[in-house]
Structures are given as C-alpha cells and as structure tokens.
C-alpha cells in the first residue's frame, strides 16, 4: 500500500469535504446578515441596504472589509490571551457541530452513532467562549453580560435536552440519519408539536436572539459581553452568533421537520433533491428567527428565567414521561 492511497488521499478527501461545508456556511452567514436587514426593513416599511452593489448585495462584503481593516483594541487591564481566544472558541464551536449534520441521505462528514450527543456536547461548550470573554475583558458590564449569558444558556439547555430525549424515545437511536428516516411517514413536528415549539423558543434563548437578547441589553449593560471588543474579534462573535442560528435551524429541521425528506413523502415532491428540501427548511426557520426579532420586545430577566425553569422545564419533563408511557403502553417502543 503506497503513501497516497493509504494515508494522504483519504486525508485530502476529508479536508475537501470540510472546505465544502465551511465555505458555503461562511457565505451563508455573511448573507444572513443582509437577509435579516432586508426582511426587517420590509416589516418596518423601510428599504434596508440599497447602496453597495445592485440591491445592496455587496453590503456584507463591505462590512467584512471594514471590520478586517480596523484596529484590534485590547483593554489595558484585560487578559490578552483569553481576550483573543474567547471569540475564536465561539466561532470554532459553531463550525465543528456541522460534522454530524446530514444534508441528504449519505451526505454527512461523520455519520457517528452518537450524533445527537455530539451536538448536545458542542452546544453546551458554547457558553465557555462567552464567559471567558466577559471575564477576560476586565469590565463590569462585560462580566455581567457573561454571567447573564451563562445562566440563560444553561437554563434553556435543560429544556433542549428533554426535548431531544422525547424525539430519541420515538426513534430508538442516537444516529441523526435514523432520526430523519423515522419521519418518512409523518414529521415529528405534528405528534410532538409542544416539544417543537419549546425547542424553537429555547433555540432563540440559546443563541441570545431577541426577545431573549438580555446578555447584550444596551439599556442596562451597554453592549454586554462584547462591549470591549472591536474589529475582527467582534466580527468573530457576530459570525459565531449567526452560524449558531443556522445550526439551530438545521437541528430544528432534522429533529422535527424531516431533514432532507419532502413533506409526508408526497410523490410529486420526491424528484426535488433532498439537500434542496433541507436548505429550504433551514431558510424557513431563519425567517422565523428574523420575524420574531422584528415583532417582539425584549423580555425582562426575571421573565426569561421564569419561562425556562417554571414553564419549559416541568412541561418538557412531563412530556418525556407521557411519551415513554404511551410508547410502552401501546407497544410502540422502537427496537
């Protein structure tokens, strides 16, 4: 066995697959900012970006060049290494989760048999980048924003965990491809509708999006955990947040909307490639993300915590018990 066929070529193939995932994802993140500004402008009877390029389509590139060309300012009292490392952690974690996301049947970088656990572990690690950013900035406003975000993300991860357990009980497998195949007859969004709603609202809180953008509340803690960041370090946080939005939309699609499958397996829709269906469902979820931001005011922090601990947690726990009871009573437990 020569070097190329044994070691180098498989490595090159994996690197090409990683680039094929990350490059479109970064472009999608850039143009998600454009889409958000245009959709919110339409909802508020404005025009949005219109100057840079036709219909403002070059605005994300102009914004990126502006952030790249600015000076990175590090506060004199900050921990320099952690200050720079924090946005890198946030952005890196938003990318590595895509290793187990299937875009179509067989279109996945790593089809591991514990894909759901991998996703849950990566989403749990995301809080570290924000805590490190808040602490290393040596600013009371940034520190308060980091504490808020840590409490918020931990609170809603519990609900997300119970929602995932409800889905896994119905599937009987931790492999993400199996979750999608289990929805060939009916999407889980219908029998598990309350869990679908809780998961999506928890995704809003997990990504610090409105109306749960308390860690960045301008009125009380100026800019939150990002208040001391500038230029490319700020941009990495920004890109990480939007990449997490796309990731949570992808998870919503896989867990509840059938992933790459057409609606209810209708024959007229089966000719459309699965990756098109998957992308369309992600775009729908992202539209709802933007719609919620344009519509709802920001919650108070006590309301945020009350919703997570006193409403979502007991309801999702009760739903897990009911789901397990129904599946056992009627003999529907998967093998």
UniProtKB/TrEMBL annotation:
Instruction: Please tell me whether the keyword Cell inner membrane is annotated for this protein.
Output: no
Which transformation does this protein catalyse, written as a reaction? Answer: a quinone + NADH + 5 H(+)(in) = a quinol + NAD(+) + 4 H(+)(out)
Keyword NAD included in the entry's annotation: yes
The way it spans or sits in the membrane comes to: Multi-pass membrane protein
Its GO biological process annotations read:
aerobic respiration
Q: Which UniProt keywords apply?
A: Cell membrane, Membrane, NAD, Quinone, Translocase, Transmembrane, Transmembrane helix, Ubiquinone
The record, for PROSITE patterns, names:
COMPLEX1_ND1_1 (PS00667), COMPLEX1_ND1_2 (PS00668)
Q: Mind telling me which Pfam families this protein's record contains?
A: NADHdh
Query: What are the EC numbers?
Result: 7.1.1.-
GO molecular function annotation: NADH dehydrogenase activity; oxidoreductase activity, acting on NAD(P)H, quinone or similar compound as acceptor; quinone binding
Q: Name the residues that span the membrane.
A: 12-34, 82-103, 115-135, 156-174, 186-205, 234-257, 269-292, 312-333
Q: Which GO terms describe its cellular component?
A: plasma membrane
Any idea where this protein resides?
Answer: Cell membrane; Membrane
The record describes its quaternary structure and partners as:
NDH-1 is composed of 14 different subunits. Subunits NuoA, H, J, K, L, M, N constitute the membrane sector of the complex.
What this protein is reported to do is described as: NDH-1 shuttles electrons from NADH, via FMN and iron-sulfur (Fe-S) centers, to quinones in the respiratory chain. The immediate electron acceptor for the enzyme in this species is believed to be ubiquinone. Couples the redox reaction to proton translocation (for every two electrons transferred, four hydrogen ions are translocated across the cytoplasmic membrane), and thus conserves the redox energy in a proton gradient. This subunit may bind ubiquinone.
Q: Which NCBIfam families match?
A: PRK06076.1-2, PRK06076.1-6
Q: Which family does it belong to?
A: Belongs to the complex I subunit 1 family.
What is the protein name stated in its UniProt record? NADH-quinone oxidoreductase subunit H
Query: What gene makes this protein?
Result: nuoH
